[in-house]
């Protein structure tokens, strides 16, 4: 059990004990009835603590499973997004390469840019 769950369980047990003691002090019972009630309550504390511990463990297990499913789904979506981005990038590179090879203007534009840059250097 994690540290937070242990603190919670301890708090529940202490709170139960304090609540029981206060209830007994203000209850309209005889001393004998109060002692019997205290004895029964003290005997029930381990059972209550076990039930609470089981419940906390069950909730922690559910949360762990749910978190794992969410992480798995997010990883799958991320992998799909990366693959889509890589495909789009590859297609764009192919289109640019085809445009550079297939267009005679692309070569003259590039040479023209170089010529302008050479004139600026002079």
Structure notes:
Helix content is 93%, strand content 0%. The protein has helices spanning 3-26, 31-102, 104-121. The chain is built from 3 helices and no strands. The chain has 122 residues and is mostly helical. The termini are far apart. The protein is rod-shaped, with a radius of gyration of 37 Å.
Q: Note the total helix count.
A: 3
Shape: rod-shaped
Give the uncertain stretches in residue-range form. 106-113
Helical content stands at: over 70%
What do the pLDDT scores average to? 78
What sequence of helices (H) and strands (E) makes up the elements? HHH
The assigned structural class equals mainly alpha
Alpha-carbon Rg, integer: 37 Å
**Strand proportion:** under 5%
Largest sheet: none
Terminus-to-terminus distance: 78 Å
Number of strands: 0
């Amino acid at each position: 059990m994690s540290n937070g769950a242990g603190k919670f369980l301890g708090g529940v047990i202490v709170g139960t004990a304090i609540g029981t003691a206060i209830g007994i002090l203000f209850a309209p019972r005889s001393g004998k009835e109060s002692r019997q009630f205290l004895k029964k309550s003290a005997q029930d504390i381990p059972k209550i603590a076990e039930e609470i511990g089981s419940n906390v463990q069950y909730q922690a297990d559910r949360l762990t499973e749910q978190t794992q499913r969410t992480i798995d789904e997010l990883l799958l979506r991320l992998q799909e997004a990366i693959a889509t981005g890589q495909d789009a990038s590859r297609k764009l590179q192919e289109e640019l390469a085809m445009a550079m090879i297939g267009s005679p203007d692309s070569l003259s534009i590039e040479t023209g840019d170089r010529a302008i840059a050479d004139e600026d250097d002079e």
